[in-house]
Amino acid sequence: MSKKTNLLLQFFSSVKLTIVLLILIVLVFILASFLPQHRETAEVVKQLSPNAAKLFLFFGLADLYHSPLFYLLMVLLSFNLIICSLQRLPVSLKQYRASCFPEPSGLFENIPDNRVIFTDKEKAQASPILESCLREKYGNSKKSETERGLLFCAERGRFSIFGVYAVHLGILIMIAGAVAGSLFGFEADVNITEGESIDTVRIAHGKEIRKLDFSVRCDKFTVELYDNGAPKTYRSDLSFIRNNQVEYKGALLVNHPLTFADLRFYQMSYGVSPETKAIMTYSDDRQKSAEIALTQGDFFAIPQYNIHAHVLRVEENVMQMGPAVKLQISASGKDFPLWIFQQIDEIAAANPGLFSQVPVFNPGLFKPVVFSLKRLERQYFTGLHIVRDPGVPFVAAGGALMVAGLLIIFLLPHRRIWVKIQESGTKTAIIVAGRSNRHSAGLEKQIAGLRDLIRRKIPS
Amino acid sequence: MSHETIFSWVTFIYFASFVLYLFQVVLDKNFWGRTASLFARVGLAAHTLAIFWRWKASYDLGIGHVPLTNLYESLIFFAWTIILIYLIFEWRIKSRSAGVCVVPVAFLAMAYASIAPGISDKIEPLIPALQSNWLTSHVVTCFMGYAAFTVAFGCGIIYLVQDAIMGKTEKKTGISGRLPSLTLLDALIYQCATLGFIFLTIGIMTGSIWAHYAWGSYWSWDPKETWSLITWLIYAIMLHSQYVRGWHGKRMALFAFIGFASVLFTYLGVNYLPGLHSYLKS
Question: Are A192 and A74 part of one and the same domain?
Fold first, then answer.
């Protein structure tokens, strides 16, 4: 290996570098959380002097999470993680394969006398009991005869050594998933008015327009409110149409996305479109028509009476008399304006003789046809967020691996317990000691527990 | 009597418990510590009861949901998790001295919930964004993490105090004798930080899964997300420096302090920054 690569390896394999990188990343995050990011940038830049604005944009301060600085830190961190892990792996493998015997040097040193169990039982009598104690607690036990006494060893959580690799691998997989998502995925926001459909979307953070190989129709959008006026449900009934065939129909709610083809659809926003729908009926002596939904500019006809109507205006409130529709009726070759009020019965009752004074308010002007306005419906549009993110499975798998690794490291630490039994004058001495790859508080407790168990089984 | 009345009683009980813990440190009597602990336990029992009561009350209103959905409810739950985790640790280590630093945090959370202006204690129906099965697991794991970090912070403060006293006298006498040993505190800080780290990791993960279903992106760089990651990284640095570089003692106590400041900013501070987690803006 050349000297240069060696230096580079050394640089990347240092845990100091990890800590420095993590601190730098923390600083970037703190800065980013206080500086306005992408959406509000334009306004901030406007307020800065031209030079300050240039500087602001040059350092990517406007979008730190997608800035070269942040990418560089992430790349360095990834290299650092990979090289650190690879360099440590042989050490861990050695630890994993390490035999219990000979015991680590200095293991039985500095153990105060009150922690040593003395018994009158002979070594040969006590040994099987010790072995059973270890088996009871750890399910395994090994034996070795040494010059200074008989040694037993039991251990737990040996694979915990590899937990740290699971965590680091998990993080790398998540980073890879995030990169895959940003390279091969896209996000788009689109508004669809009720009854209409779209088959192109504008990709977010760019000008590209993408044509889908299917179209999405919003059949209905519903807002439900609680009694206090807070929103309860936003719901879009969507149809996914390919080759003029509805392939899939579904209700889209917040927290319940729909998936079609390889895209996921989210309920993001909604609004009221400028067009208002008038729901009307007409009747003659015998029957009543079905409801017809009309917006400004629509035409409809009543063929049996040769009446053609053109919707001129749809108004929420005309002359303080409530919702009304202005129609242009063509009958017998002439055009007549006609106002249809929703509350015409009340208006007529409050103004006797209204229809003779203002015939254009009379819904039954064209006998025997009587028009009636049932209600106005505000037309909603639904705001969908459309996502394709092939990185998600990787991020999910990486996250799961990381949590599993953390649990293994912290909840199942690798612990080895040695028990030495030796003659000590007229008595037999039993000493318990242990080693752990983690903080020793838990180990001390286990050793104390084992000592208690032995004391109960082998009374002094 | 309503659950709000119980909450205000619980606030006073925690305050009393804090004062008693203080007595225990200053006066050398086991009696104070035992009484302080008893108060904290009674407070926790009443607290638990009142949370369930509020839960039931929301069902009586016909808008049943778990009481974890706005700033008021989260503060109440934060205080609950702090006392719960603290009492578990107190029982495990058989020492009551960290209470004087931990219990007041729970008291302050309760007091802040009831007196801060603009915090509504009304049971509100769930807006669509919060109607998710991930709500409970996300909030519970995050607050368990916050609470464990709070206990680590309490132990860290005691560590620094103990260290300052011991530095002068070299002997465990007076107040120092009634505080746990530096070794034990060091181990406790590590254990609490570890526990908090695991909970916070799971909390961020569940939040991320929820965001995937609700907003269409598992990560949006919302200030709360960013700050939870900052907190996570601070504790990650802490645990690494402990394990790899062998740092311990005072440095860990300082980390517990910085980490807790970051937890507080993640929880409350980011509400003053624009973002998606606006349910907490009371």
Answer: no
* Residue A408 forms part of a structural domain: no
Question: Does any CB of chain B come closer than 8 Å to the CB of residue A234?
Answer: yes
| Structural domain boundaries, residue A445 | 104-157+413-457
Helix, strand, coil share (%) of chain A residues, nearest 5: 40, 35, 25
Instruction: Answer whether residue A54 is part of any domain.
Output: yes
**pLDDT over 60 at B167, yes or no:** yes
Question: Does residue A261 come out as left (phi exceeding 0), alpha (psi in the -120 to 50 range) or beta?
Answer: left
The verdict on A291 and A439 lying in the same domain is: no
Closest chain B C-alpha to A37 CA, distance in angstroms: 9
Is residue A333 domain-shared with residue A419, that is, in the same domain?
no
Nearest to A57 by CA among A74, A71, A78, A36: A36
Number of domains in chain A: 4
Residue of B nearest to A175 (CA): B219
Does A47 reach chain B within 8 Å, measured CB to CB? no
Compute the distance between CA of residue A68 and CA of residue A330 in angstroms, rounded to an integer: 68
pTM as predicted? 0.84
- Per residue in A238-283, pLDDT (tens digit) is 999 999 899 999 999 999 999 998 899 999 988 888 778 889 999 8
CA–chain centroid gap for A241, Å, is: 28
ipTM attached to this prediction: 0.89
A187–B208 CB contact, under 8 Å: no
* Cβ–Cβ contact B259 with A under 8 A: no
Out of A95, A120, A149, pick the residue that ends a domain: A95
Chain B positions touching A254 (Cβ under 8 A) are 128-129, 131, 214
Q: Give the closest-approach CA distance of B199 to chain A in angstroms.
A: 10
Is there a domain that residue A172 lies in?
Answer: no
Q: A45, A76, A95 — which closes off a domain?
A: A95
What distances in angstroms separate CA A34 from CA A96, A219, B270, B273, one per listed residue? 46, 42, 9, 7
A179 inside 8 A of chain B by CB: no
